[in-house]
Amino acid sequence: MEHNAISEDEWSARQELAAVYRLVEMHGWGESIYNHISLRVPTEPSSFLIKAHDRLYSEVTASNLVKVSIEGDLDETSGVNRPGYVLHGGVLQCRPDVNCALHVHTAEGIAMSACAEPLRMLSQYAVRFYGRVGYHPYEGITDGLDERARIERHLGQNIALFMRNHGVLTVASSARAAFIRIKDLLEACRIELMLLATGRELVEVPAEVCERTVRQFAAHDDGRGGADWPAYLRVLDRMDPSWRS
Predict the structure, then answer these.
(1) CA spacing 20 to 30 A to 116: which of 43, 60, 100, 223?
(2) How many domains, the chain?
(3) Residue 135 sits in which domain range?
Protein backbone atom coordinates (compact mmCIF):
# COMPACT_ATOMS: atom_id res chain seq x y z
CA MET A 1 0.00 0.00 0.00
CA GLU A 2 1.36 3.41 -0.99
CA HIS A 3 1.72 6.10 1.66
CA ASN A 4 -0.11 8.68 -0.45
CA ALA A 5 -3.13 6.37 -0.77
CA ILE A 6 -4.15 6.70 2.89
CA SER A 7 -4.67 9.44 5.45
CA GLU A 8 -1.82 10.81 7.56
CA ASP A 9 -3.58 9.58 10.72
CA GLU A 10 -3.73 6.03 9.41
CA TRP A 11 -0.13 6.15 8.18
CA SER A 12 1.02 7.29 11.62
CA ALA A 13 -0.91 4.41 13.21
CA ARG A 14 0.63 1.97 10.74
CA GLN A 15 4.12 3.12 11.65
CA GLU A 16 3.39 2.89 15.37
CA LEU A 17 2.07 -0.66 15.04
CA ALA A 18 4.93 -1.76 12.76
CA ALA A 19 7.36 -0.42 15.36
CA VAL A 20 5.73 -2.49 18.11
CA TYR A 21 5.91 -5.65 15.99
CA ARG A 22 9.64 -5.04 15.52
CA LEU A 23 10.12 -4.32 19.25
CA VAL A 24 8.34 -7.53 20.23
CA GLU A 25 10.67 -9.44 17.90
CA MET A 26 13.70 -7.58 19.27
CA HIS A 27 12.78 -8.62 22.82
CA GLY A 28 12.43 -12.27 21.81
CA TRP A 29 8.70 -12.49 22.41
CA GLY A 30 7.78 -13.41 18.85
CA GLU A 31 6.97 -16.95 17.75
CA SER A 32 7.83 -17.18 14.06
CA ILE A 33 4.72 -15.90 12.23
CA TYR A 34 2.35 -16.53 15.15
CA ASN A 35 0.67 -14.30 17.76
CA HIS A 36 -0.70 -10.88 16.95
CA ILE A 37 -0.81 -7.18 17.73
CA SER A 38 -3.68 -5.01 16.54
CA LEU A 39 -4.32 -1.27 16.40
CA ARG A 40 -7.58 0.51 15.71
CA VAL A 41 -7.54 2.86 12.71
CA PRO A 42 -7.85 6.39 14.19
CA THR A 43 -10.42 7.69 11.72
CA GLU A 44 -12.24 4.35 11.32
CA PRO A 45 -13.19 3.01 14.77
CA SER A 46 -14.75 -0.12 13.27
CA SER A 47 -11.52 -1.10 11.49
CA PHE A 48 -8.18 -2.28 12.81
CA LEU A 49 -4.70 -3.05 11.53
CA ILE A 50 -2.96 -6.40 12.01
CA LYS A 51 -0.14 -8.22 10.25
CA ALA A 52 -0.70 -10.72 7.46
CA HIS A 53 -0.49 -14.24 8.87
CA ASP A 54 2.48 -15.37 6.78
CA ARG A 55 4.78 -12.48 7.72
CA LEU A 56 7.49 -12.66 10.35
CA TYR A 57 7.48 -9.84 12.88
CA SER A 58 10.81 -8.73 11.44
CA GLU A 59 9.14 -8.32 8.04
CA VAL A 60 6.29 -6.09 9.18
CA THR A 61 6.25 -2.56 7.74
CA ALA A 62 3.74 0.26 7.82
CA SER A 63 2.63 -0.48 4.27
CA ASN A 64 2.15 -4.26 4.53
CA LEU A 65 -0.17 -4.26 7.54
CA VAL A 66 -3.69 -5.41 6.70
CA LYS A 67 -6.83 -3.41 7.52
CA VAL A 68 -9.89 -5.46 8.49
CA SER A 69 -13.36 -4.69 9.85
CA ILE A 70 -14.33 -5.44 13.43
CA GLU A 71 -17.90 -6.08 12.35
CA GLY A 72 -19.20 -9.30 10.85
CA ASP A 73 -16.83 -12.18 10.14
CA LEU A 74 -13.34 -12.39 8.67
CA ASP A 75 -12.84 -12.10 4.93
CA GLU A 76 -10.85 -15.30 4.48
CA THR A 77 -9.07 -13.82 1.45
CA SER A 78 -7.50 -11.07 3.59
CA GLY A 79 -4.49 -13.15 4.58
CA VAL A 80 -5.19 -12.53 8.28
CA ASN A 81 -4.98 -15.32 10.86
CA ARG A 82 -8.49 -16.28 11.99
CA PRO A 83 -7.72 -16.75 15.72
CA GLY A 84 -6.04 -13.34 15.67
CA TYR A 85 -9.11 -11.80 14.08
CA VAL A 86 -11.47 -13.43 16.58
CA LEU A 87 -9.44 -12.35 19.61
CA HIS A 88 -8.46 -8.85 18.57
CA GLY A 89 -11.68 -7.96 16.82
CA GLY A 90 -13.61 -9.04 19.89
CA VAL A 91 -11.46 -7.04 22.30
CA LEU A 92 -11.61 -3.87 20.20
CA GLN A 93 -15.34 -4.27 19.68
CA CYS A 94 -16.17 -4.59 23.38
CA ARG A 95 -13.73 -1.92 24.64
CA PRO A 96 -14.09 1.41 22.79
CA ASP A 97 -11.46 2.84 25.16
CA VAL A 98 -8.91 0.33 23.83
CA ASN A 99 -7.09 0.98 20.57
CA CYS A 100 -4.36 -1.65 20.80
CA ALA A 101 -4.27 -5.29 21.89
CA LEU A 102 -1.01 -7.25 22.17
CA HIS A 103 -0.94 -11.04 22.58
CA VAL A 104 2.14 -13.24 23.03
CA HIS A 105 3.00 -16.83 23.96
CA THR A 106 6.16 -16.52 26.05
CA ALA A 107 7.31 -19.25 28.43
CA GLU A 108 6.97 -17.06 31.53
CA GLY A 109 3.54 -15.81 30.46
CA ILE A 110 2.22 -19.30 29.79
CA ALA A 111 3.74 -20.61 33.02
CA MET A 112 2.01 -17.92 35.07
CA SER A 113 -1.25 -18.37 33.17
CA ALA A 114 -1.29 -22.00 34.33
CA CYS A 115 -0.86 -21.07 38.02
CA ALA A 116 -4.13 -21.30 39.94
CA GLU A 117 -3.13 -18.41 42.21
CA PRO A 118 -3.46 -14.90 40.72
CA LEU A 119 -0.42 -12.76 39.97
CA ARG A 120 1.16 -11.80 43.28
CA MET A 121 2.37 -8.32 44.17
CA LEU A 122 6.01 -9.30 44.54
CA SER A 123 7.64 -6.58 42.43
CA GLN A 124 7.06 -3.05 41.22
CA TYR A 125 6.38 -4.51 37.79
CA ALA A 126 3.51 -6.56 39.22
CA VAL A 127 2.05 -3.61 41.11
CA ARG A 128 1.24 -1.88 37.79
CA PHE A 129 -1.41 -4.60 37.36
CA TYR A 130 -2.88 -4.49 40.87
CA GLY A 131 -6.62 -5.11 40.54
CA ARG A 132 -6.35 -4.80 36.76
CA VAL A 133 -5.87 -8.39 35.53
CA GLY A 134 -8.46 -10.85 34.22
CA TYR A 135 -8.28 -14.62 33.65
CA HIS A 136 -9.82 -16.53 30.74
CA PRO A 137 -10.02 -20.36 30.84
CA TYR A 138 -8.47 -22.27 27.96
CA GLU A 139 -11.01 -23.33 25.33
CA GLY A 140 -8.67 -24.48 22.56
CA ILE A 141 -7.62 -22.44 19.53
CA THR A 142 -9.54 -19.16 19.49
CA ASP A 143 -11.29 -19.50 16.15
CA GLY A 144 -14.99 -19.30 17.05
CA LEU A 145 -16.78 -15.96 17.25
CA ASP A 146 -18.84 -17.25 20.18
CA GLU A 147 -15.73 -17.15 22.42
CA ARG A 148 -15.61 -13.37 22.07
CA ALA A 149 -18.39 -12.91 24.63
CA ARG A 150 -16.50 -14.92 27.23
CA ILE A 151 -13.22 -13.13 26.53
CA GLU A 152 -15.10 -9.83 26.92
CA ARG A 153 -16.50 -10.93 30.27
CA HIS A 154 -13.15 -12.11 31.63
CA LEU A 155 -11.20 -9.08 30.38
CA GLY A 156 -13.78 -6.66 31.80
CA GLN A 157 -12.24 -3.23 32.33
CA ASN A 158 -8.79 -4.66 33.05
CA ILE A 159 -5.57 -3.81 31.23
CA ALA A 160 -4.28 -7.38 31.02
CA LEU A 161 -5.67 -10.87 30.54
CA PHE A 162 -4.06 -14.18 31.39
CA MET A 163 -5.36 -16.71 28.87
CA ARG A 164 -5.00 -19.89 30.89
CA ASN A 165 -2.46 -22.41 29.52
CA HIS A 166 -2.10 -20.21 26.44
CA GLY A 167 -0.49 -16.80 26.89
CA VAL A 168 -1.03 -13.20 27.92
CA LEU A 169 -2.75 -10.15 26.46
CA THR A 170 -2.40 -6.46 27.25
CA VAL A 171 -4.65 -3.65 26.05
CA ALA A 172 -4.18 0.11 25.95
CA SER A 173 -5.18 3.30 24.19
CA SER A 174 -1.97 3.23 22.13
CA ALA A 175 0.45 0.67 20.73
CA ARG A 176 3.26 2.19 22.78
CA ALA A 177 1.31 1.74 26.02
CA ALA A 178 0.32 -1.85 25.19
CA PHE A 179 3.99 -2.62 24.52
CA ILE A 180 5.13 -1.14 27.85
CA ARG A 181 2.42 -3.10 29.63
CA ILE A 182 3.40 -6.43 28.05
CA LYS A 183 7.04 -5.71 28.89
CA ASP A 184 6.20 -5.07 32.53
CA LEU A 185 3.76 -7.98 32.78
CA LEU A 186 6.29 -10.48 31.43
CA GLU A 187 8.93 -9.12 33.79
CA ALA A 188 6.49 -9.50 36.71
CA CYS A 189 5.85 -13.11 35.66
CA ARG A 190 9.55 -13.86 35.34
CA ILE A 191 10.34 -12.40 38.76
CA GLU A 192 7.50 -14.27 40.48
CA LEU A 193 8.57 -17.59 38.95
CA MET A 194 12.17 -16.98 40.03
CA LEU A 195 11.08 -16.12 43.57
CA LEU A 196 8.80 -19.16 43.84
CA ALA A 197 11.71 -21.36 42.80
CA THR A 198 13.71 -20.23 45.84
CA GLY A 199 11.21 -21.82 48.22
CA ARG A 200 11.81 -18.95 50.63
CA GLU A 201 9.23 -16.85 52.44
CA LEU A 202 8.23 -13.95 50.19
CA VAL A 203 7.31 -10.35 50.98
CA GLU A 204 4.34 -8.91 49.09
CA VAL A 205 3.60 -5.23 48.61
CA PRO A 206 0.73 -4.17 50.95
CA ALA A 207 -2.61 -3.32 49.35
CA GLU A 208 -2.53 0.35 50.34
CA VAL A 209 0.92 0.77 48.79
CA CYS A 210 -0.27 -1.00 45.63
CA GLU A 211 -3.22 1.39 45.35
CA ARG A 212 -0.99 4.44 45.69
CA THR A 213 1.56 3.08 43.23
CA VAL A 214 -1.11 2.41 40.61
CA ARG A 215 -2.05 6.09 40.81
CA GLN A 216 1.62 7.03 40.52
CA PHE A 217 1.98 4.87 37.42
CA ALA A 218 -1.05 6.58 35.86
CA ALA A 219 0.44 10.02 36.48
CA HIS A 220 3.81 8.89 35.14
CA ASP A 221 2.29 7.38 31.99
CA ASP A 222 0.35 10.58 31.32
CA GLY A 223 3.49 12.68 31.82
CA ARG A 224 7.14 11.83 31.35
CA GLY A 225 6.46 8.13 30.74
CA GLY A 226 6.17 8.68 27.00
CA ALA A 227 9.80 9.80 26.74
CA ASP A 228 10.90 6.20 26.23
CA TRP A 229 9.02 5.82 22.93
CA PRO A 230 11.30 8.03 20.78
CA ALA A 231 14.25 6.19 22.36
CA TYR A 232 12.84 2.83 21.27
CA LEU A 233 12.29 4.18 17.76
CA ARG A 234 15.91 5.31 17.58
CA VAL A 235 17.00 1.78 18.42
CA LEU A 236 14.81 0.38 15.65
CA ASP A 237 16.09 2.92 13.14
CA ARG A 238 19.68 1.95 13.90
CA MET A 239 18.86 -1.74 13.47
CA ASP A 240 16.65 -1.57 10.37
CA PRO A 241 14.52 1.48 9.46
CA SER A 242 12.40 -0.47 6.93
CA TRP A 243 9.55 -0.68 9.48
CA ARG A 244 8.69 2.92 8.60
CA SER A 245 8.04 2.17 4.91
Answers:
(1) 100
(2) 1
(3) 8-240
